[in-house]
Amino acid sequence: MLYIGNFKMDIPTENYIAELENIDKCGEELWLALPYPYLSKYAQNLERAGIVMGAQNVTSAVVKESTGEVSAEMLLDVGCAFTLVGHSERRKDKGETYGRIVEKCQQALAKGLNVVLCVGESREDYENGNTSRVLEKQLREVLTTLKEINYNNFIIAYEPIWAIGTGLIPSIDEIEVVVRHIKSMTEKWAKSELRVLYGGSLKANNAKLLKSADGVDGFLIGGACKKVDELQKIIKA
Ligand code: PEP
What we know:
Structural class: alpha/beta
Bound molecules: phosphoenolpyruvate
Oligomer: single chain
Distance between the termini: 12 Å
Strand order of the largest sheet: 1-2-3-4-5-6-7-8
């Protein structure tokens, strides 16, 4: 299983990182997406702990005259191995259009950074039975446009927007259906079966249940990754 923590805009303290260095990964993969200012600061700690470091975003800009942007080269230079792309909080608030998401994926993958592409439907689309249609659009736009990239470095995180930070989760049946659908789309358009993670209100108390979902290759974890004991319980569940 692959567990990816998304630290969002919180400050990762030295205490937190020290505790994290002692986490028992139980032989699983643990990745952590830190805010940009803390990447260099904690790169060595995470490396020592065997935790893969990544970013929460990457620029789509190609010219160096792009004030305030952070490129894939910069992320690699400070020790990142991956970046999230298209998190719903960025799609919603930061003008992250389909075109921009494709550009980000293309550039990051071309430079050798792993990409974790976040997809997921809104509550309205979920309630109207439009989940498949929304996911198909989100994935088709990216997978049919990317060129000459290594799909081994590409992971999809299914995150229903209505489940993020709300304490709500889909049923196991619903997750299994969606994950199967996503995998079939990746086979069709990327010609390979990509890893698919689930994200949204995963906690210690529902980890065992969510881990029972067939076909899920791991989890993207927001709130619960910020407490090491909770993260530890999730990994052990
Ligand atoms: C997320 O924002 O990617 C996420 C999964 O958040 P949470 O676990 O807090 O729902």
